[in-house]
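Appendix B. Extra example for self-study. Work through it before the problem class; the solution is given directly after the inputs so you can check yourself.
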Amino acid sequence: MITEITVEDLPALETGSQLTCSSAGSTHFDGTLANIAELLRERGPVRMVGLDELDGDALCVAIGAIGGFGPMLELPPSGDEAVSAVRALEARLGKRVDAIVSLNASGPNAFAPVAAAAALGLPLVDCDGMGRVLPLMSQTTYALAGLPIGPLAAASLAGDVMVLDTSTARSELLLRSAMQAAGGFMLCASYPSIVDQLAKCAIRGSTSRVVEAGRLLRGAPDRGTLLAGLASIAGARVLGGGRVVELGHATRTVGARQYPAVPTSVVVREPGPDGRMIRLEGQSEIFLAVADGVVSAAVPDVLCLLDQREPHIVGLERVAVGNDVDVLVMPADPMWHSRAGLALAGPRAFGFPVEHPREVVS
Amino acid sequence: MNRKDVVEQLSVAELVQFGPLGQAKVFAGEELDRQVSGVVLVAELEEIRQCEPHSAVVLHGAAAQGAWSLESALRLAWERNASCVIAPADIAVGNPTAQLAERLRVPLFVVADPARHALELSAAVADTDAARARLTARCAVLFGERGTLRDIVGVINIEVPGVQVALIAEDGHVLAGRAAADHAEGKRRVEVHVPGPDGRPWARLVGQLAAWSPSWALTVRTVLGLARAPLAACVGRAWLRPVRQAASDRVLLDLLLGEDGDDEGARAAGWSVDGNHVAVFLQVREAGDADQEAMAPRVLAAWQEAFPHLPLIPRGEGWVSWWTGAESPDAVAGLLRPYLQATRPVQLAAGVGLPGEGVAGLRRSVDEARLAAAVAGRRDGETVELFGALGPRAVLACIPVPDVAAAARVALADLLAAPDADVLLTALVALLDCAGSTGQAAARLGVHRNTVLSRIERIRARGVDLDSPEQRLALHLACYSLLSAT
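Solution. Structure tokens for the complete assembly:
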């Protein structure tokens, strides 16, 4: 268990945050990280605590950004966005926030809460609400447990601050419209809850896992050590591996339209005459693995591509025909494998009319 | 929708050939011989798990979302032993999908409107007889439009799915089609006999079925039966052409070699009339008239193949042709020998005349060739005799040997009654051939001269007068005929 996040932890945090992205991206956020490093140097390391270390009625808010990677690269968040959003939410609630939790400790959202905690001088709780990347803010174990997303506050890179107080479903719609208008990126403080509520539904140890995975990805001497380490940290297993032989966007004719991305398909061909053809279907993330026509793994379990030569995650924006990759599967938190969990973030929620492999088995 | 009656099922190939899948794009098309028991329209992938084996699985709606769902459908179809999968054309089938279909050996069809195809497939599968009747009718129409053996057999091989057909001559030679068809055994073999234009057995039409059912075998047999008449007509035309040509050539040759030497028609026909000719006469060894008529097409066809620039014209009991130019009789004999072997099993004897100039020379050369052919006909196997090598011996060929031999048996009854008649007859012929020289006769027979003298004494004792000049020719002919006839 990691008890504080220092400047030295940031590179591992960034590298590890790509693992649970389901290959949503392998972009580097140097500008954002430079700002966070500056904050940590100014304010000192962020204290990280477990939920059990806080009082049951301590108020927490979930910090996480929505939007694309592009705006973040063009105008890196300074760290003040979280302060504006949290202060606005505190004003709406009439209460001070006691600690920061992560919306989802994956991708850039793994380090946004670190920046928020540093800027606000609050402890960071080592937990999150997804255990991975999912496209909608309402696809959380927090929502699964019935916690309302709002009231929530959001701040843009231009300094706009808004407070939304409506249902979870409408929050998602309104927030996305505002985010587009504000320039494609907004940092949100949502799911205001006390520790006793979060204790039942938060996925614990998320940020620690990210940092440990990052250290492993950066330091593993060979592929065997890396895979063994990822198996131990995240339960990762190799579904198969081979060469990318096909990439496409027009491979799905119908499907869920509510997601902010286009369908993407990657085909990995295992070597040898009996090698399987593993088709990975996704949008921004990989949702489904179909090996020789058999649904072998599906969202909410994490599916990602690991380069077979260099120990790094291959994002969907980088993958190219001819890459040699391993297809990794990491099981989602058991809460996601419940009937309600699969309804919210299982393959059917993403427009794939198939059962999750665990449903087929049961 | 499903029919339990597996015996009467259509194959996937039949649905392609004369059914609704004819226009569909196909992947993994090598596996079309499976039978189709029914058609299932699938809107959810999970529904495939309930399919009966041998179903045609038609995907639409949520089951046809894209490449991944198509691959899942192929896999589920394979697990259920479905006969084929039919998908809408708005799914782009890439290499991986096509390869998966091939690996699973599940034929994949892509069509514009799956629902309409499902209806049409159901209708076709439900009424097998109607579909097969359409196939038979289509073949009958196409047979009428084709003019060669190869094209007619080709119609069956192309139009009738899952069937390989070959046309095989009575001697086992493949005349048209796919030789592999003849390897079929048991129920999968369908065979009909094809008579020649003369009504005699000429060839067999053999089919190999990829899948068997009683009614399908009957359908194929019907189609093969329909092909018999066009095949016979086709080969009849091929036989008739040279025979008809030969008939008119015979008249022209009679005019040319007649007393008037009318060469106008011959020149018009493109025959060589001027120059130095070497004539050839062919005749069938030991053949009756009827046989010769039956063999004429084969002899003429083989000749046209070997010497396309030379006419072969019927004359008397054989055929005449001639070389004009520098070829010597020996060279002509050399050219003829391979041809004589090519006409087997018909055995031909050939005679070659001496070179002759102009029409008169040709006439003489033809007569010489005919005599030489008669001599050749008395030998075994396919032989060529040169008149030039025979000289006056050729005359002997015109002797009615059986008649003379019969008379000789009466005239020389005493001699033939001797216990060693064969030995005495041989000695007598040797003595006559050697003009009475006992020394030469002994050398020819390989015995001592005294043995010859002793045999002459025994011949005389049987009442044969060797010294009478009036008797010698008759005696020589009688002995020659007796030896030739035995």
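Self-check: The radius of gyration of chain A is 20 Å. If your reasoning did not lead you there, revisit section 3.
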